Amino acid sequence: MNRPPQDQAPSGPLGRCLAQGVFGSYALLGRLVAPLVRRHLKRRQARGREDPQRLPERLGKSAATRPPGPLLWIHGASVGEAQSALPLIERLRRDWPAIAILITTGTVTSARLMAERLPPDVIHQYVPVDLPDAVAGFLDHWRPDIGLIIESEFWPNLLRAASARGTRLVLLNGRISAASFRRWRRLRPLIADLLERFSLVMAQAPEDHDHLLALGARQVILPGNLKAAAPPLPADPAELAQLKAALAGRPRWLAASTHPGEDLVAGETHRALRDRFPKLLTLVAPRHPKRAEDVRHELEALGLNVAQRSLGEAIDPGIDVYLADTIGEMGLWYRLAEIVFVGGSLVPKGGQNLLEPARLDCAILSGPHTSNFARLAAELAAAGGLRQVTSPSDLTAAVAELQDNPATTAKMIAAARAYAVGQAGALDHVAAALNPLLREVTAAKR
Asked: In what helix (H) or strand (E) does residue 339 lie, and over which residues does it extend?
């Protein structure tokens, strides 16, 4: 008797039967634990992680009105995914004005960003929690004709219910990391059940393409990474001019999107270099600004003088570290520092978006943990725009070298910028792949 490999669950009719049973139990469990989930949302609200005015949206209840005609729904988990959708939204509004657009995200931070950057005719909602009643309420109200799901938001109740109601699902910028692939192979019937519901799957990179096909996706194409098509992060011109004036003559570098552990490394790097560069300023922008108080305590425990952006503190000559703990200003910090370390990479978090600093004239440093952007990191390093560091001492040495060698820094900046420009064609390929589906839906609504 042939048996599947040990790390892969059975496929075929047996696998489909298994998936039906598991997802049926999952939905039943969702109904049973719904009161506990509502209580959990209330606790999150108390910690500032849910929007109290819009908490009903998380339960599938909306105060917004559905526009008439065809509706395209885009879903991304948080800030990075939502930002990657902005250029596509602009293209869709231009090319398909008869189609209304709804975007959902799951975090307070992403909602604030969308409030600032979405066109007024595009609707933002919080995604419902993956409970049957919440999902049903959301779908009953919005009745999306097309659903674009960004990266790897595989919520079973949401995807299965949308598909059952006739929503044409598309996986956009699909991503399956090597670690996720290994996990999903053991549960292949479950992920295959979800992937088969997509009319079209657009993979982010060749390895994602292969992983998605192996896990059961049907029509998989490789149009490029949509994040590569995003415009440069914005910055307030007046704030930029004021900060440049305040920092004139000071060498500086930025530790961007840092995770716990990396803030301390940034502080230690500054302490190691301040005798060599007496006017050095280190900017630290935590990935999650709510950690700012803890980060400040860590840095001050190193004997560093810290000024905090959210408190309006000035960058006086005696300040060692400027704690950039605000939301939506990363474009400002990238424009202020030519030397940038991108976080989530010295600790095993998979790294953060490397194209954002590449577009804004930065020489980029990264740790070894870049699985979220593995292909991009490898190509950017091969192009000369990225240097990988493997330890805190490596980071210190790299910052010192780039401070000492403006020509080397300029060469890295030029290479990073050229690479970013060369990636910008993904939007055209994604839009072209969506056009047949958009024509079909528009014609059906006439």
From this structure: strand 339-342
Closest CA to 85 of 151, 155, 161: 151
Q: Do 313 and 257 share a domain, yes or no?
A: yes
How many domains, the chain? 2
Query: What's the CA gap between 419 and 371, in Å, rounded?
Result: 19
Determine contact, residues 339/254, Cβ cutoff 8 Å. yes
Q: Which one from 81, 151, 329, 338 is the annotated catalytic residue?
A: 81
**Contact (CB, 8 A) for 224 and 426:** yes
- For residue 255, give the nearest of 329, 323, 314 by alpha carbon: 323
Mind listing the pLDDT tens digit for each residue in 31-81? 999 999 999 999 999 998 999 999 999 999 999 999 999 999 999 998 889
Domain range for residue 291? 237-422
Spatial contact of 202 and 430, defined as CB atoms under 8 Å apart? yes
Provide the terminal-to-terminal Cα distance of the chain, rounded to the nearest Å: 55
Q: Confidence class of residue 417 from pLDDT cuts 50, 70 and 90?
A: very high
Say what the pLDDT of residue 252 is. 98
Question: Is residue 293 annotated as a catalytic residue, yes or no?
Answer: no
Q: Tokens 């006086």, residue?
A: 316
